[in-house]
Amino acid sequence: MNSDDVSVKIFKALGHPIRLQIVKFLLDEPRCVCEINKHFEFSQANTSQHLKILKEAGILENKKVGVEMHYAVKLKGIASLLSIMENVVAEFFETLDF
């Protein structure tokens, strides 16, 4: 696997609106699955599937705390990447002709 493959895997994982929201939610602090479910009102199965994809992409890591599974952003550069994306999106909207 080369760096382009890894880049594509990360962008694909972040390319789904729910996964993007989950990563943004986890930027500040690790959270248990129950908190993620409550915040987004997803089914347990849906949340677990999205968390699995984000973990397989190397974006998230998990840690068992008692009986709860906690997830956190593993790649600290993700915060910078999302900030850059927000700037790109703002630039996109600025270039639209209304």
TrEMBL record:
SMART domains given in the database record: HTH_ARSR
Coiled coil: none
CDD domains in the cross-refs: HTH_ARSR (cd00090)
Pfam families: HTH_5
Domain of life the protein comes from: Bacteria
Classification via SUPFAM superfamilies: Winged helix' DNA-binding domain
GO molecular function: DNA binding; DNA-binding transcription factor activity
Protein name: Metalloregulator ArsR/SmtB family transcription factor
Originating organism: Acetobacterium paludosum
